[in-house]
Structures are given as structure tokens and as C-alpha cells.
Amino acid sequence: MAGRYPDLAGKGVLITGGGSGIGAALVAGFSAEGARVAFLDIAEAESRELVASLDGKVEHLPVYMKTDLRDIDALRAAVTHAAAALGGIGVLVNNAARDDRHDFESVEPDYWDENHAVNLRHHFFAAQAVAPHMRAGGGGAIVGFSSIAYLLNMGELPAYATAKAGIVGLTKSLAGRLGPDNIRVNAILPGMVLTERQKRLWVDGDAAAEGIARQCLKRSLLAEDMVGPCLFLASDASAAITAQTLIVDGGML
Length: 253
Ligand SMILES: NC(=O)c1ccc[n+]([C@@H]2O[C@H](COP(=O)([O-])OP(=O)(O)OC[C@H]3O[C@@H](n4cnc5c(N)ncnc54)[C@H](O)[C@@H]3O)[C@@H](O)[C@H]2O)c1
Prior knowledge:
Elements: E1 12-16, H1 21-32, E2 36-41, H2 44-54, E3 63-66, H3 72-86, E4 91-94, H4 109-136, E5 140-145, H5 158-178, E6 183-190, H6 196-201, H7 205-214, H8 227-234, E7 245-248
Parallel strand pairs: 1-2, 1-4, 2-3, 4-5, 5-6, 6-7
């Protein structure tokens, strides 16, 4: 469904973790709006397949840049490269993450630090790197993917939950710092989204049914359900919205 948000057509959009899951739906969704999309991911095969699947279907084929977001120098270089390839960056979607489970008793400092390098640290450094490009274009929008997981008292992922709560704090701070530059910063908190990874690792049929029973809407949420809210927060339709969080969970909370 192209052209819901005409201001996104031709806009430079950088998406982290765009190779699979929700990120892949976002790459396809922004591309369908006519945006110029670049995405960063370590999953090379899936990312290349995604680009190939969009060939001939979108006005601007997305640009894939293999990047490990735990490496901040590589992230900075990728942002510079993306800005040149897209002719500027007006939207940043901080989406990449890895929701590993970890035992309270056995977490060590190295594990904690690596978990936060995957789930939190790159959000800040991506924003820091894109800000000059957004200022040069007269403003921009940053959307960070947090999670309702940090609100659910889930004991099996303390480092991930802390990172996802941190994204909300970071959203508020960046909104305050970058608002004078007309850069808006918001966060989306997805609920239970049945991506391939979730189905493979964490959510079997029984768990999915239990989750759906807790939602007001009695259906599975799919990656595509995250696209509309993200397009909205990235576009001028939300021009006066910043420092906010949007829960997209089918009414689980
Ligand atoms: N799926 C859900 O139910 C759910 C629920 C709440 C929040 N979220 C959040 O939504 C976002 C997307 O979730 P998803 O389910 O699509 O995740 P996913 O694990 O399916 O995809 C994440 C992407 O990030 C990439 N990635 C991971 N580590 C990377 C690294 N070091 N460098 C570069 N890329 C890396 C992966 O290769 C993958 O393509 C995440 O921020 C997640 O925390 C998801």
C-alpha cells in the first residue's frame, strides 16, 4: 500500500536490523512508501534475499550494508556511507536487538556488556551519528524499538529488559536534546509479535495461544503490524509528537 505518507517518498531512511523479522517488514514498508532505504544487519544471506525480493517492486531498491552494530566505528562508517548513498538521512529506525534468555545466577559482566552492546548501546551512537545529517536536512525523526517485555516482570531476561527500559529513557533524553533541531524521537513498544525467530526459539503454539488470550485482540500480531505505527512516527503526520512511547501489543497491557 504505497503513498500513505507522501512526505516519506524520496526520503533517506536508515534502519538497523533490517534483514529479518520486524526490521525486514519495515524495510519493505518504507520502500513501498517510495523512501530511499538503507539497512544495517549482520545476517548477510537474509538481508540479500530481502533486497532481491523487492527488486522491481519498489521505486528505490533498499541498500544493504553488512554491519555489526556492536562495533561503533563500523556503525559510524555505515552511517556516513548511508548518508552518501541516500542523499541524506531524514529517518532513523533503531530496531536491531537479540532477545536472549539468561539465568540470573550465571550472568557475568562480559555477558551483560555484550547484551547491552546488541540491545541498547548502538541506539545512542546511531542517533549521534545521524543527527548532523538530519540537521543538514532541516530536521528528522528517530524511532526506537523498545518492548513491553520490560513491563511484564519477566525474570528470564534481566539484561534485555534493562536495555529495553533504557531505550525509553534514551528516547526522552534525545527528544529533549534534539528537539530544538526539529528532530523528533519516539519509541514503539511491541507486544508478542510472531516473527520466525520468536516461533523458532520462544513462542510455541501453546505460548502463542496464552499470549493471544491476554490480548484484547484475539489474533497473532505479525511483523507487518509494526509498520503502520512506525511510518506514522517517522512521517510529518506526527510532526508535533516527540518524547513519546507507543505500545503496539493488541491490548495485552
Ligand atoms: N518480536 C517480538 O515479539 C518483539 C516484541 C517486543 C519488542 N521487539 C523488538 O522489536 C525489534 C525487532 O524485533 P524482531 O523480533 O524482529 O527481532 P529479530 O531478532 O527477529 O531481528 C533483529 C534483527 O537484528 C539483527 N541483529 C542482531 N544483532 C545484530 C548486530 N550485532 N548487528 C547488526 N544486526 C544485528 C538480526 O540479524 C535481525 O535481522 C527489536 O528491537 C525487538 O527487541 C520484538
